[in-house]
Amino acid sequence: DLLLAIANVNASTIHACSTGTTTLRFRRSCSAHDAMTRVSLSALRHTHRHLLHHRALLSQQKQRSNKATARCARHTQTRRRQYTIMASSVAAGTIAAFAAPLSMSVGLFAWGENWKGSAFALNLFKNATATVAFLAVSIVAAYVRGQPAFAGGATAAGWLVCSGLIGIVVGDTLWLQALARIGAARTIFVDALKPFTAAVFGRLFLNEAELSALAYVGVALTSVGVTVAAQPQTRKLSDEEEEVEEFQDSEKKAGANTFALGYAMALGNVILDTYGAVLTKQHGSQSFTAFEISAIRFGCSAAILLATGLAARMWARFVRKHRQLTYDLDTMTMPPPSSSWADMPRGMTSKAWLCVLGGVTLTTFTASVLGVYAVMRLPLGVYAALTSLGPVISLPLGYLVRGDRVTPWNAVGACLACAGVAMVVTSTG
User: What is the 3-state secondary structure (H, E, C) of 103-162?
Assistant: First the structure.
């Protein structure tokens, strides 16, 4: 029994020991499983956080991509709108540049046979009349816009005054003197240099883009065509006109210095007129409207011409009153200086004055506004090439109004000028 009891005790002890070992092993296994579970849960949490972060990054990238796409679309729309505005502005400037010489040519035919005064008096009359019209339109337009007129500043206005002095007063005076000395055909031949001068001045003073080779070829063809088209036309002359032609030919043959001075004056007009356009584009494009620019330029010119005429009249009166210049010791005396060249003509009919007023409206008012509008929207060389088409436009007008016969050379020149203009317009888009 004792041995059996001892065996039972030993068996119980052995069972208890084996049971404790198993429990310890289970506990250890559970602890390891728990540890692995905790590691897995930690890994899952880390993976979840990484996925959330990645999802947030993807969302941010998608938002940035959408913003970039919207910004690119807005930029594209803005560029397309700017291109449309630029294209329409260039098209409007091209139409204005075509219309300016047309208006000028019609106006010249309107007053050509009706004005009976001097060139100085005509220049003064047309500048003063156009200035009044420009001022009236500028004030009314400013009132409609609800903005003050001539709000561009004194500095810009001063530069426009210089532009009028250089381009209109001095430049036009040289041009008229060149016409008197070398004739219209030779003066227009020198005027053919104006598009090239304008292209160079636009590059130097306005930082404009260089014209393409096609544009330069078009400018050259236009200049050659205008020069050929401006050759004298033949029509039946009256006896008085034939006498005037013979007298002018004899006067031209009198001295070679007259031709040299006439060419120099024509070239001076090309340079000064082009630089006047440069000043107008530099200081008037962002400050004043086309009517205000024309009012300042022509108003300055009218004031200077009026002051010149008054000074000449006062000087003539002073000489007549206080001086006696003896030309011959016996009986002949030198007459005092005359100021009749500054006087308005007398004896013109109402119909003649209406024709002159219509011509001034077309040449000095309409053509000037169109020219200013065109020079603000086109490269200077292109503007000069398009506005030099006056002689070509005057061919059909001369045929219809005065019966001028168009020669084959005139027709060839007109075709060359039109081909050159087509190249210039194509090159500028």
Answer: HHHHHHHHHCCCCCCCHHHHHHHHHHHHHHHHHHHHHHHHHHHCCCCCCCCHHHHHHHHH
